[in-house]
Design goal:
The complex is a heterodimer of chains A (405) and B (247). With 405 residues, chain A is an all-alpha fold. Chain B is of the alpha/beta class and 247 residues long. Helix content of chain B is 38%, strand content 24%. In chain B, strand 7, helix 6 and strand 8 form a beta-alpha-beta unit. The chains are: A mainly alpha (405), B alpha/beta (247). At the A-B interface, helix 10 and helix 13 of A face helix 2 and helix 3 of B.
């Protein structure tokens, strides 16, 4: 018989070590510097923003919305693995202990992040709702209580066999959370107690009943666990390569025309790279985000020729991130045996990257002109993109190929 | 008959000084289907990897149309298509885009592609799934995508690794019919499989591997003669070899 408690401890420890390893990798990567810079700049602007907010700013409403979503979303890492569907099914009755450990752990992280988000928003609460450390403690306490309730109840919700039924109950929880948060930030404690009563009834007589009617939905639990794991990996992937990352595919039919090429042998791989870029998980998102962050930097930094350096740095960041796409098909045998020369392959990749860099450069240029009206530097931005792809890309590709092969 | 694939004294493996396959000699000629047979771990996949040009031989050569991979990589690889044991698909591409990419990569004209692709899709009953993504396909359907891509190119040589697993009976039948048709048009096929009854019916010659060596090869008649098993089926001969009775 498997000791499920030990199994949980073993998996949690492995998970923690794994996470820490990735953290150290992240800390070593270049992107972390830009991130810290961004946080510093962000906090300065947060303070400025607070002062600039009008008196009638709907702070309570916004806080309510934020926390309704946050409280309703109750992810639980079960640390299940694919093999469990075969090997743990026989001990299903004993899994209660395993899952209760998972719930406790989710409660701990959930409470921590609830407090974290509340602390981030605390300056707004101070200005628009109520100041003082007693209020911080009170609000914090009530929010964490609601979070714990949501995690417990949502676990029971996960027993429902159909996604649509789960969604219905999720909507119900959202409404309860909305009312709860609204009353809390209006400091209507008497009504809050009434909501507590409702929550008690929900927990014991609505969600509590599922336990008797349904078993565990193993496949859904596994799917959730894998989705959460991938989410984590995707975040780390901004900083460093994550080989285990399975990209989710989005169809994005809007971009189909961008990724269509004329029917020629030399276009085969360009078409493949473009389609992968447009549809595969986060490449497109990363591109858009880097462009937007670039805009932000251009906006924050005083106008001048040094903006070209900023733009250059963003080209570099983008190109570095995108080299993962080059290695994506490294072990794909079908890809390897195409009768296409090695340097044609490399060229296809570079050309594709060049086009994206030029688009990036043009967008930066347009933004710069709108911002400053300085045409010269604006035009130099796409030129910098071309220069970058001609001068820097070949040596980068060379280095990358020798590193990865 | 002209040989398409010539493997001469091929030795190779994954670690230096530890070859997995030893001194293989065989050919695949025009108009023939050659069955590559052996137990799990006999070295079939390693042999195929050498033929594909994915592994470098320690000694000996693998030539297609008289050229090795080292001499003319692009030319070498444009002579054959490969159907892997486990389907390998691009998660980001639809069925249609897989076919299109394959056609482009192997240098087909667009018109040729369009005339070939429709009947293939209909034959394998995939014509209503051209906009599907791999995540929507079952294992058998993924295998069909691999088969469609390989057949589309109509190369001189087909290298096929265990094509029947997961394929429905109609799919198997269609695949075999295509193989026979292309064979009669002059192509050669090297097919690794465990489904011996099918191999017995469709292959013209057999290569039986055991522990990295080619222990028996020839037509069914020749195999019977060499093993001394009269009227034996391919199954019998294979079991006989697999138990180490032939060295």
């Amino acid at each position: 018989m498997i000791d499920v408690k030990k199994l949980w401890t073993k998996r949690r420890n492995a998970h923690v070590t794994h996470t820490l390893k990735y953290f150290s990798l992240m800390a070593n990567s270049g992107l972390i510097v830009s991130l810290i810079l961004l946080i510093v700049i962000g906090s300065v602007y947060y303070a400025k923003l607070l002062q600039a907010l009008p008196e009638n700013f709907p702070a309570v409403f916004i806080l309510t919305i934020v926390f309704s979503f946050w409280l309703t979303k109750s992810p639980i890492r079960t640390l299940l693995k694919e093999g469990d569907l075969v090997f743990l099914l026989p001990v299903e009755s004993g899994m209660k202990q395993y899952f209760s450990k998972a719930i406790s752990s989710a409660t701990a992280t959930g409470s921590f992040f609830t407090l974290f988000i509340f602390t981030l928003l605390w300056p707004i609460v101070q200005v628009f709702v109520h100041d003082g450390w007693k209020m911080y403690v009170t609000f914090g306490f009530f929010l964490i209580a609601a979070k714990v309730f949501n995690i417990y109840v949502s676990w029971e919700e996960r027993r429902l066999p159909y996604k649509s039924h789960q969604t219905n109950y999720k909507i119900m929880r959202f409404i309860v959370n909305f009312v709860y948060a609204y009353l809390l930030f209006n400091e209507a404690y008497l009504f809050l107690i009434a909501i507590f009563a409702i929550m008690y009834v929900l927990k014991n007589f609505v969600f509590g009943v599922f336990k008797k009617q349904h078993g565990y939905q193993w496949e859904m639990l596994l799917a959730e666990e894998q989705a959460l794991k991938m989410k984590g990996y995707r975040m780390v992937n901004y900083f460093t390569d994550v080989p285990a990352l399975k990209q989710t595919v989005h169809k994005r039919p809007l971009f189909n025309s961008v990724a269509s090429f004329s029917f020629k042998k030399k276009n085969a791989l360009s078409a493949l790279y473009m389609k992968t870029f447009v549809r595969s998980g986060d490449y497109l998102g990363l591109y858009v985000r880097l462009i937007l962050i670039g805009f932000l930097f251009m906006y924050l930094i005083p106008a001048g020729w040094w903006q070209l350096i900023v733009v250059f740095l963003f080209f570099q960041m983008f190109a570095l991130q995108l080299f993962t796409l080059y290695t994506q098909y490294r072990w794909n045998v079908i890809f390897m045996i195409y009768p296409i020369k090695q340097d044609t392959r490399v060229k296809a990749f570079q050309n594709w990257l060049k086009n994206l860099l030029i688009i990036q450069g043009v967008l930066y240029g347009i933004f710069y002109v709108l911002l400053t009206g300085d045409w010269l530097i604006a035009i130099l931005m796409p030129v910098a993109a071309i220069l970058y792809s001609v001068v820097r890309l070949p040596s980068m590709t060379k280095k990358h190929i020798t590193l990865t092969s | 008959m002209k040989p398409i694939l010539e493997v001469t004294d091929l030795t190779g493996g994954y670690l230096p000084n530890q070859p997995v396959i030893h001194h293989l000699d065989f050919t695949v000629k025009e108009n023939e289907i050659v069955g590559l047979i052996g137990l799990n771990g006999a070295g079939k996949s390693t042999t195929i990897k050498h033929v594909l040009g994915l592994m470098e031989p320690m000694s000996g050569t693998s030539k297609i149309e008289g050229q090795t991979f080292r001499e003319e990589p692009e030319n070498y690889r444009s002579q054959f298509t490969y159907i892997p044991e486990m389907p390998i698909l691009y998660e980001e591409l639809t069925l249609w885009e897989h076919l299109e990419l394959t056609a482009m990569a192997y240098g087909l004209e667009e018109q040729t592609f369009l005339t070939r692709v429709r009947p293939l899709l209909e034959e394998f009953r995939m014509d209503n799934k051209i906009k599907w993504f791999p995540s929507q396909f079952s294992k058998g359907m993924k295998q069909k995508v691999m088969i469609l891509c390989a057949l589309l190119v109509e190369p001189k040589l087909y290298i096929v690794d265990e094509p029947f697993v997961g394929l429905d009976p109609l799919g198997i039948q269609s695949f075999l019919e295509y193989m026979v048709k292309f064979k009669n048009n002059g192509a050669g096929v090297l097919m690794s499989t465990h489904i011996l009854s099918t191999a017995e019916r469709y292959c013209d010659r057999f290569l039986i591997m055991h522990e990295g060596r080619l222990v028996l090869s020839g037509t069914l008649e020749e195999l019977r003669m060499r093993s001394g098993l009269e009227n034996a089926t391919l199954d019998d001969i294979y079991l006989y070899v697999a138990r180490g009775k032939v060295t």
